[in-house]
Design brief:
About 30% of the residues lie in helices and about 20% in strands. A 7-stranded mixed β-sheet has the order 15-28-29-30-26-27-16. Strands 24-21-22-23-17-20-25 form a 7-stranded mixed β-sheet. It has a 3-stranded antiparallel β-sheet with strand order 1-2-3. The radius of gyration is 32 Å and the shape is globular. This is 10520_t:CDS:1.
């Protein structure tokens, strides 16, 4: 609407100017668009669009007859009623109806662009991706408006694009405006209380970063407290790893404490609460009642195992629900920020403080980070470790800080992503794509460029006009960043090329050999009339224009300097987007989630150190996973956020089959050829000449 009004106002034949405004109502009412014309107001997106299309008939957006105009109105009403609904099922059904309607059509009404197309395009473009509890509905943009010659459309698109660029924020801002109750500058104390029973995962990282954020925002203090109350699970190994991971995340606590420092005080508070008649010692077995909700909350438990800090001094240990509020109060914590999975226990937290006459602590709970195809439960992650399905807590398939770092996640990208999530209480199922896309923006400007060729079925090419003997040349590692350094590139009259590239070649075709120049395909040879090429011949044509070739090909000179490498890619550990409460993890384990590919790479990769990130050109970003001094370099592929790299290799096949069945049930479309035999591709090509 704004773009259309802008176009109309800019026409030389218009004396009456149109003004469009947004009203911004108070409370939670929905904002709306208003059109002011002749001192009258027309309210609502659809109504404003209808007025302009009717008032300016030369735009030809309302059809040529009454039937067309009525159908256009019908589709506009359809968009308002169905696509602006908050009910996911209504939207999904509506999208199905749209998809069905456009199966054999280009436009919604008639054979040319109308207001119905513009309105529906606008609504769908603003939606793009819709989420429900279990389903993600991808909404494609139906029409490519850039292909239309209508001046109104082109001017509108330019204006919308320009306006969008001008108003686009430079960086997403975190939603941190939560208004901490009774927060005073210099007096806020937050805490991050990890249990040393596993490695930090991305969910813990969010909790740690938010607690640090508010401590610094209010010029207060951050306490890292190890909740070491269960000798059966805790190890010094986990404690040290947590300290190291927090340091990597850039989190510097003002104070490090242990719940075990307060065991004596906690014991005295347990005695006090018993004497007050608010707690008791229970010597019955675990089935006091089979319904856990009907059992009294446990505040202490017996455990005869030695504690890793206090040894054999104690045989009883406080539970988290008892120790946490007490120690928070004793250590001066003013605000306990924790995930909303604890929300049902907030009342219990406050009850403990009231029962023991302790200073109150404010609680703010924020949403937990839940990712598709991902487990954050330490118990379930431990199961994978125990079953030998992963290499350890730092396995690149794990959502632990060490796991995602080993897969190529940078701390800078992780911090940016978590802080953009903010302290919102809205619980959503997150995709991994945005995080990895952000990571790509961090590594791309500085990742050295290298070359790799898959060893399986590689093709050897003889270069006519190539050098008589191999030679090397220094070239930049990154064409857009000279600071990355230089690499040694070898040239030879014999080169190696990927089979997939060679299969696309045609005799006489001119291609570009990256970092060398153009060449013309002279010959291609297969083995015993098979489907794969084994060798070929190229004629150098260095005076050719690389801008005119369609294919830019990576290659390696066939010289002793070539280095053998292994490329590693991963799938998700589970093949279901989200496990429900009663789902057993062993029923959804991805059968194969690690993929190894033998390859060859340029000799410069031997200079890399473990943890270095590079780009194999035309293949993707990789991180070196091992020390190459005595081993074949092992490179792990870093996801780049694109759909193809984020899709579940195991889950998609099942989901796609399910979608195909659903589509057949929803749209049982008859064969367009009826009883007539289906024509062959050759016949079809002749039909449409």
């Amino acid at each position: 609407n704004v773009a259309l009004a802008h176009y109309i106002n800019g026409r030389s034949d218009e004396t009456q100017k149109i003004t469009i405004e947004w009203n911004n109502p108070s409370n939670n009412e929905k904002s709306n668009v208003e059109l002011k014309v002749n001192n009258e107001k027309i309210i609502g997106t659809a109504n404003v669009a209808r007025y302009m299309a009717r008032a300016y008939r030369d735009l030809d957006l309302y059809g040529s007859d009454a039937i067309s105009a009525t159908l256009i109105d019908q589709w506009i009403d359809f968009a308002s009623v169905n696509l602006e609904s908050s009910d996911f099922k209504v939207i999904e059904t509506a999208w199905g109806e749209i998809n069905h309607h456009l199966t054999l059509r280009t436009f919604f009404v008639g054979y040319k662009l109308t207001l119905a197309d513009i309105i529906l395009w606008g609504v769908l473009k603003s939606m793009r991706v819709i989420y429900s509890d279990k389903v993600k509905l991808q909404i494609p943009v139906l029409i490519d408006f850039s292909s239309f010659s209508l001046s109104f459309v082109q001017e509108s698109l330019k204006w919308v694009s320009k306006s969008a660029d001008a108003s686009k924020p430079r960086k997403e801002q975190p939603n941190m405006n939560i208004g901490l109750t009774d927060a005073e500058i210099g007096k806020v104390v937050t805490r991050f209380p990890p249990e040393p029973s596993g490695y930090l995962h991305i969910g813990h990282a969010k909790a740690a970063m938010l607690n640090e954020y508010f401590a610094r925002e209010y010029k207060g203090k951050l306490i890292v407290r190890f909740d070491d109350t269960n000798p059966s699970k805790e190890k010094e190994e986990f404690e040290e790893s947590i300290k190291e991971d927090l340091a990597l995340l850039g989190i510097r606590p003002d104070l490090v404490t242990y719940t075990s420092d307060h065991f004596e005080e906690l014991y005295q508070y347990a005695v006090k609460i018993i004497k007050k008649g608010l707690a008791y010692v229970d010597d019955t077995d675990v089935n006091t009642n089979p319904n856990k909700a009907l059992r009294d909350p446990v505040i202490y438990r017996c455990n005869l195992l030695p504690h890793h800090r206090t040894g054999n001094k104690w045989k009883i240990y406080p539970t988290y629900d008892f120790a946490c509020p007490i120690v928070d109060s004793l250590e001066g914590v003013t605000h306990a920020l924790r995930t909303n999975e604890y929300r049902d226990r907030n009342a219990q937290y406050e009850w403990m403080l009231n029962a023991l006459d302790l200073r109150k602590v404010h609680i703010w709970d924020f949403s937990r980070m839940n990712f598709v195809y991902t487990l954050l439960s330490k118990r379930k992650l431990q199961w994978f470790v125990n079953q030998g399905l992963v290499s350890g807590w730092d396995d690149p398939r794990f959502p632990t800080v060490r796991g995602i770092r080993r897969r190529g996640m940078t701390i800078e990208a992780l911090r940016q992503y978590i802080l953009t999530q903010g302290a919102s209480q809205n619980t959503v199922m997150l995709e991994w794509d945005k995080l990895w896309a952000l990571n790509k923006s961090v590594i791309d400007p500085v990742a050295p460029r290298h070359t790799s060729i898959l060893r399986k079925s590689l093709v050897s090419f003889n270069i006519l006009g190539g050098p008589e003997s191999p030679y090397s040349k220094d070239l930049p590692k990154h064409k857009k960043n000279a600071d990355v350094g230089i690499k040694k590139t070898w040239f030879s009259s014999s080169i190696l090329i990927d089979q997939d590239d060679a299969k696309t070649f045609e005799i006489g075709e001119e291609i570009t050999l990256m970092d060398w120049g153009n060449a013309i395909v002279k010959a291609l040879c297969k083995y015993n009339s098979g489907s794969e090429f084994i060798r070929g011949e190229l004629q150098l044509h260095l005076e050719g224009d690389f801008k005119k070739t369609k294919k830019k090909i990576t290659w390696l000179a066939d010289t002793p300097e070539i280095t053998k490498v292994v490329l590693v890619d991963y799938d998700y550990l589970i093949n279901k987007r989200r496990l429900e409460e009663n789902d057993q993890v062993e029923d959804y384990v991805t059968e194969k989630s690690e993929f190894l590919t033998d390859a060859l790479a340029d000799s410069n990769v031997r200079e890399l150190k473990k943890g270095d990130i590079i780009q194999f050109e035309r293949r993707g970003y990789y991180i070196l996973d091992n020390d190459t001094t005595f081993e074949v370099p092992r490179f792990i592929r870093i996801p780049d956020g694109k759909a193809i790299s984020m899709a579940s290799k195991a889950g998609n096949e099942k989901e796609n089959k399910s979608k195909q069945k659903d589509t057949i049930k929803m749209y049982n479309i008859p064969d367009i050829y009826g009883d007539v035999p289906v024509p062959s591709p050759e016949q079809v090509s002749k039909m449409y000449g």
